[in-house]
Each structure stands twice: as structure tokens, then as C-alpha cells.
User: What shape does this take?
Amino acid sequence: MPALRRSVAPVGIVAVLFLSLAASALPVASRADTIVSTSMDGKIRVWSTTGDLIKTVTANAGGISLALLSFDGKLLATTGADKKVMVWQYPSLTPVRTIAASDNGVTALAFTMDDKQLLTGSAGHRLRVWDLATGKSTASFVVGAGPVLGIYDVPAPGGAGSTMIITLDADGHLKMWGTDGTSMFDIPTGDTGIKCMSGNFKLQLIYTGDTAGLVHYYGETGQGAYIGTQGSAITCMTAARDGKTVITGGADGSIKVWDAMTHKVLTTIAAAHPGGVTALMVSPDGQMLVSGGADKQARAWTMSGDPIKSVAIGGGAITYLAPQVDVATASGK
Assistant: This one.
């Protein structure tokens, strides 16, 4: 296991980072009556939770590798092998804009907190900021020695509407930046095998999953590793909204539900998806887990691992799952 190093960041800034990060992972308010999925066949699909297909739209040529809903749930961004980012109105899936984001391929996506800009990370180690109104790049800077694996936009200390950008790169560094590219601090995790990240705003923690099957956590009060391993490389992860559980998917097709307080495994689903787990989500009420895999199947489970429903997506591995946003609730109407 790689050595874990102490953060050199000021404690106050770290508190802002960990409190804000996981709250950025999903839109503010969501309901579990529909689910959006994307897959490597290049299609966006909207489903009922009973498995009925509501809508299908063809998006990126060559497949969708990444997708993300905006904070207010009104926009969906997708990207793939065509190295373009497509922005869609959601849930109508009306195209809004196509951005030629990177010659090296887009490896990470994030909306800014006001949903007016899009952040992209590339295999060429670069982060770019895009104005969604014009489609033009407003900032571009190198963030690390490896491909960008994750990006978040979070409130800056002092508020007043200002934000900062958090990045995770393949050389194992969690970094915070000003929106102009000014480096603010660096957490060298020592783990160069990181494959994915998630966050827990209830416990103010960042999680990473790596090729050794280890879950690491980083927070204001400390950092460390979970007890046990996935049994294979961790390919995707998420945390429940109540902060009580962390869910990981593995290259061996397994899913594990971990207790966020004891760091121990609560549930193991040994063969959820032959070929590997590629996407995970937890329903807003925390009662249902939905997984997608290389087997082109979406499966719903109880949090104790009992199967509820299986739906054949077809066409390619599933790359993103999220509950549909209740826009009226999210906007406070």
C-alpha cells in the first residue's frame, strides 16, 4: 500500500474542500422515478425505475465515455471517443452545443456551481474552462504530470459567489486551483494507481479507489485506508447521500457496500456484472443501488445485495447512471 502523506493545505481551506466536494457530486434535489444512463454505443437513455425505456437519443460517435448532469438538472454533458463534449437540455435531450474540447481526449467533466461554465480535463494533463453561452474557452492550464481523472467546482473561502477548482490527476495528486489557474494547494496521496474518486459531504471526506482494490479516504481530521480490498481494481465508486455507506465496483464484476464509519464491508455482490462494473448510483432515499456493467446490463439491488430488477441496455458498456432531477424542488419552487 502506498504511503499516505499529510496534506500541506491550511485546515480552514481543507474544511471547505471536503464539505463542498461531495455535495457537488449530484444535483441538489433528485427523485427516483426516472434514471438517465449513457453507454459506449453512444446513446443516452431515460428509464423508469421499473425498467421501461422512455427516451433514447444518439450522442457521441464512437461511444459515450463520460457524462454528467448539471447542478440544477437542466443540462447533461456527454463526451467520448470523438473528443467532443455535447451539451443537452435535460430531460428533453434537445442539443444545446457541441464543444471540440481536446485533441487528446476528455478524461473528466464538471459543471461550475452556477451551471454557466463547463470544466474539462484531458489525457494531455490540461484543464479547460468553457463558457456554455458561447462555447469558447476562457481558461486553460496544466494540472499535473498525468491525465486528469476528476474535477470539482467548490465555493471559495469567504464566499461572495467565488469558486475554486479541485482536480485529481493520474500521478496521485489532489490539487486546488483558482479559476485563473493559480495553484492553491497540493495533497500528494502517494498513490499512482488511482482509478476513480467520490466524496462524502456528511463526513467531509474524499474517497479514491485504485488498481490494488483499496479505498482511501482523505479529510480534515485524517486519512487512511478501508479494511480489506475489492479483490480487483476499483473501477467506479459513489457514496450514499446520508453519508453512511460507500459503494465500489470492481473490474472482476463485484460490488461492495462499505460502512463509512467502521471502514468495513457490509455487503458483497460477488458477480454483479461479468466483465466489470462500470457505473453506480444510489437512489435519493438510500434504499436502492443501481449498477451498470460491461455486460450492457443495468441492475437494481437492495442495499443488502438482493436483486430487484435487471434491464438489458444493449449496444455497449454503461458509463453513467443518475436519478432524474426534480427541477421545481431544486430551484426552490
